[in-house]
Specification:
Blueprint (H helix, E strand, L loop, with lengths): L1 E2 L3 H10 L6 E2 L1 H20 L7 H8 L1 H5 L10 E3 L4 E3 L1 H10 L2 H18 L3 H11 L5 H12 L1 H9 L5 H20 L2 H9 L2
Parallel strand pairs: 1-2
Antiparallel strand pairs: 3-4
Helix pairs in contact: 2-6, 2-8, 6-7, 10-11
């Protein structure tokens, strides 16, 4: 049974389906990790003066810290924040030079992403256990959650099941209902949902 990372669901699922294995949705696992990285970036960025180069660059190019490092663009563009033509890799290198703590968390984040995407369960959890005491409390919370849900995350990595199609349907139905509610009639809404 696939589900989101919401612990009250676990007990309910076990009560209703006692022999089912719980598989956490991979998207939600990565989302937890990504949000932790972003919150650490904000914690590191905030002590800088708001007008400083460091603060502005960390605020403007935050998505580069979230992105898989293997997918960074090699194209060179003019970057107003740096007043130079730079690649995304060069910007990332500059961002990481602002803080050793940011660099350490970024490297850990990238390794965790890699092991997760390559479905290397043991490496993923070994890395979490090795770094648990050395990381920012925000990361510790996420890591402890992952360790607590180890069996469910292992299932997510080893089994082919996902609720991606259900999530996509939910998102499209929400946006459709919002659009149709704006347009007005209940008949239009009913007809649109019957076409799904």
């Amino acid at each position: 049974m696939t589900m989101d990372m919401f612990s009250p669901y676990y007990q309910l699922a076990k009560q209703l389906f006692p022999h089912a294995q719980i598989v956490l949705d991979r998207f939600h696992i990565i989302q937890h990790l990504s949000r932790a990285m972003n919150r650490v970036r904000i914690q590191i960025m905030n002590p800088f003066d708001r007008k400083s180069q460091e603060y502005r660059a960390l605020k403007r190019y935050w998505k580069l810290l979230q992105q898989d490092s293997r997918k960074l663009s090699h194209k060179r563009f003019y970057r107003p924040a740096f007043r130079a033509h730079l690649t995304n890799q060069e910007i990332l290198h500059q961002l990481l030079s602002y803080s050793d703590q940011l660099r350490q968390h970024y490297e850990l984040y990238q390794l965790l992403l890699f092991h997760f995407q390559e479905k290397q369960t043991n490496h993923f959890f070994d890395l979490i256990e090795e770094n648990l005491s050395a990381v920012h409390p925000i990361f510790q919370t996420v890591c402890r959650t992952f360790l607590k849900d180890r069996d469910k995350i292992t299932n997510a990595l080893e089994l082919p099941y996902s609720n991606a199609k259900l999530e996509a349907l939910t998102i499209s139905s929400r946006s459709l209902s919002a659009t149709l509610l704006d347009s007005g009639t209940l008949t239009t809404l009913r007809n649109a949902f019957s076409s799904l």
